[in-house]
Specification:
This protein has helices at residues 157-162, 164-168, 214-218, 272-282, 285-306, 310-324, and strands at 4-5, 16-18, 27-31, 35-40, 45-49, 52-55, 68-74, 80-82, 94-99, 104-110, 113-121, 127-136, 142-155, 171-177, 180-185, 196-202, 209-213, 244-254, 259-269. It is α+β, with helices and mostly antiparallel strands.
Length: 330
């Protein structure tokens, strides 16, 4: 079976459609020169800002369970799935993964619920956006919960991979308002560059729960494929946690054919003041829509300036897959 869905005009197509369960992860790289994002066709990946890894990542070809995830839970049936294949693994679904020049899109349909998750990086701000559009395709009302999860690193990749437990000790977290989480790294030396990161949920209509302690989220002996927090309320911990994460949760009731939109936003800056300004900007729905529109326009201009076409861009992305995830066949 092919790894991707090929059409007659594929060589000149602006999009590449992938299966989500390929033998080797296929990657989609985005960035604005400061903020860089790598997303795989199974939903894994990592985020970087300048020389810092924002989320923890290892080149794990087998599991690929590193990155930012969104869990979905049906409160009536207690069914749990995710907006992409990872981190919960295979499920009986209708799935399509689309890599475009400006975004990665994950389209899934499980248990009568259709989700479309668009992932992009803002062209003019150091912001990563994950816009989730949820539609109830069933014939009954559904009570759903949406929970985000990303494991924080906030350190250069070599430092984090060499001494991850030591690196975690310098990160602090805070919840300044509902639907907003902050994290920053305490400086070990005067010359250390500052880093501030935020995670924001927009579009929620009810109360928003949060968690910043990985051990409390996962529970004893569990991992991201079966976290204990999906079966209970988030604890609301913050401060100098020993194993920092970002997790936000909201609930929604969808009538048949009803559609809602949520956006999970991750932001990075060199100071608290700049970060708070960005948060205020991207809490407005029009800023989210504008970021996706500008990302599309910027991608087209970049192709024109570089003198490359869609087919060449796809080949560059495929080459990156083998660089990031070494394959014995290569």
């Amino acid at each position: 079976m092919r790894d991707y869905i090929r059409s007659a005009t594929d060589e000149e197509s602006a999009d590449r459609l992938w299966r989500e369960d390929t033998a080797t992860p296929r990657v989609h790289l985005q960035g604005n020169g400061r903020y860089a994002l790598m997303v795989t066709n199974s939903g894994g990946g990592h985020s970087r800002w300048n020389e810092f890894d924002l989320t923890r990542w290892r080149s794990d070809t087998t599991l690929d369970r590193w990155g930012s995830f969104v869990y979905i839970r049906d409160l009536c049936s207690d069914s749990v799935w995710s907006a992409a294949l990872q981190p919960l693994g295979a499920a009986p679904s209708t799935t399509m993964v689309r890599f475009s020049a400006d975004r990665a899109q994950f389209n899934r349909r499980l248990f009568g619920i259709e989700t479309i998750m668009d992932v992009t990086v803002a062209a003019d701000d150091d912001v990563e956006l994950r816009r989730l559009i949820i539609t109830n395709r069933s014939l009954r009302s559904r009570q759903l919960e949406f929970t985000s999860y990303l494991e924080l690193a906030l350190a250069p990749h070599r430092t984090d991979s060499s001494h991850p437990a030591f690196a975690k000790m310098f990160v602090e977290t805070e919840c300044p308002e509902s639907g907003v989480l902050l994290a920053w790294r305490r400086a070990r030396a005067p010359e250390d560059p500052p880093i501030w990161v935020a995670h924001v949920l927009t579009g929620a209509t009810g109360a928003v729960e949060y968690e910043t302690d990985r051990s409390r989220f996962l529970g004893r002996t569990n991992n991201v494929s079966a976290p204990e927090a999906l079966r209970r309320k988030l604890s609301g911990s913050a401060g100098a946690v020993l194993d920092p994460i970002f997790s936000l949760r909201c609930g929604a009731t969808l009538d048949p054919r009803q559609r809602i939109e949520l956006t999970f936003v991750t932001l990075a800056a060199a100071s608290r003041e700049v970060l708070l300004t960005l948060i205020a900007k991207y809490q407005r729905p029009e800023s989210v829509s504008r970021a996706f529109e500008i990302a599309s326009t910027r991608a087209q201009l970049q192709f024109r300036n570089l003198g490359i076409g869609p087919a060449e861009a796809h080949r560059f992305q495929e080459l990156a897959s083998y660089l990031l995830y070494p394959n014995a066949r290569m």
